[in-house]
């Protein structure tokens, strides 16, 4: 028996290749129903003690258990929780997590595109509110905006005139500056539409 916490903070119970969602809590027990109840009309269920350590009773399922599905669900939640702390691209986050997994788990996790969309939604949910102007930008900036990722140990913010009305932030890595210093010509471009409106 294993408790899986979803990225939305809900608890799921995994046992013998089946996944259950919490249905009802009493003073001493919790009733869990098969997660395929709606899709497959499955009446499978378990009742656990209130601490979710012991299964008191079970009701039979109308389908076989699938441990690969359980592992894929755990992997999906791991990917989504990693995405909130990682500024990497969704495709790279997924590739890093899937590379060591059995092919059956990779197949059970579903389409990569839907997982990428879930990662983008998750990332949007943790993006801070856009500042109304330079005075709304915190000082000092949080570490996730001043260091390179995923290492988090290399400085990326090289200049901040924090205490003026015309706030100026300059970001660059040591490697990037070294390459610029060696180049004979600089070409500039930018995705200005993705920058905050007041910046």
Key structural traits:
single chain; 199 residues; alpha+beta; N-terminal domain of TfIIb; two-stranded antiparallel sheet; elongated; zinc ion binding; Znf_FLYWCH; FLYWCH-type domain-containing protein; zinc
Secondary-structure blueprint:
Blueprint (H helix, E strand, L loop, with lengths): L1 E4 L5 E5 L2 E8 L3 E6 L2 H4 L4 E5 L5 E5 L7 H19 L4 H9 L4 H6 L3 H15 L30 E4 L8 E3 L2 H9 L17
Antiparallel strand pairs: 1-2, 2-3, 3-4, 4-5, 5-6, 7-8
Helix pairs in contact: 2-3, 2-5
GO molecular function: zinc ion binding
Protein name: FLYWCH-type domain-containing protein
Pfam family, one: FLYWCH
Number of strands: 8
Which band does the percent of strand residues land in?
Answer: 15-25%
What is the tally of helical segments?
A: 6
Largest sheet: 6 strands, antiparallel
List the uncertain runs.
none
Give the proportion of residues in helices. 25-40%
The coarse silhouette is elongated
Strand order of the largest sheet: 1-2-3-4-5-6
Write down the overall mean pLDDT.
86
Rg from alpha-carbon coordinates: 24 Å
Instruction: Tell me the domain tally.
Output: 3
Strand-pairing-aware structural class: alpha+beta
In whole angstroms, the N-to-C terminal distance is: 51 Å
Q: In sequence order, what are the helices and strands, one letter per element?
A: EEEEHEEHHHHEEH
